[in-house]
Design goal:
about 280 residues, alpha/beta, 2 domains, seven-stranded mixed β-sheet, about 35% helix, globular
Length: about 280
Amino acid sequence: MLFRRKRYIKVEPKEKPEIKKDLWLKCENCGKLIYKKKWEENLKVCPYCQHYYRMTAFDRIKMLADADSFKEKWDSLMSVDPLGFTAVKAYPEKLKEAIHKTGLKEAIVTGECKIGGIPCVIAIIDAGFIMGSMGSVVGEKFTRAVEYAVEKKMPVICVSGGGGGARMYEGIISLMQMAKTSAAIGKMKKAGLLYLSVLTDPTMGGIAASFASLGDITIAEPRALVGFAGPRVIEQTIRQKLPPGFQRTEFLYKHGMVDIIAERQELKETIQKILRIILL
């Protein structure tokens, strides 16, 4: 019996299907591919390993504020170059790059909104703008937000995520903002108003050493790095091995520095509950 080999005719498609790489994201922690739309719906948390990605200031506002309730204030303020700072790159050039990259004029977004129907003043640090470092404009906008809250008798919710600390390009002027913002919160507390501080990754340096650590209630996202100097700097300075999880929010919670650790998906509900219990 004779068997004939089947002949296959190769058909070339008229157009090759285009695979859009921007639809997928490779998790920097577990290495798995994540559908970007699913990742965004999950508030930029990996659905496989629960790795937290950093969020922009307006991502945070969309997540926390009631729909269409946010009104930005003091958005025209921009940094200048008081020291004529020059190094590898001049400060004005650094600012232009940050503005182009983020679409923001500074590392903080301030304004008023409603959270669960309750009017609040909100201030959010964006780590995308020169690592969320605190210069004179960040300090000024935060102080104005707190003073506005005192005038209007509103609570303040601050979301910190600045790993750059005090902005080196402004020298002592930047360091002065630590005292300035802390004094503003002192006035707010004397007025008997609520200040909620939310710590996200990373909250470091002058921000951690000033307004981020002064909340009446301090909430933190899981596994966020919070501290003054980083773990590597401390280990090299004291020449000792630090305990596991040092400067992560779980470690701070265990030692009484954080009141609540809230998953990102539960953060708005947690803030709402606190506002209702204390203010209503």
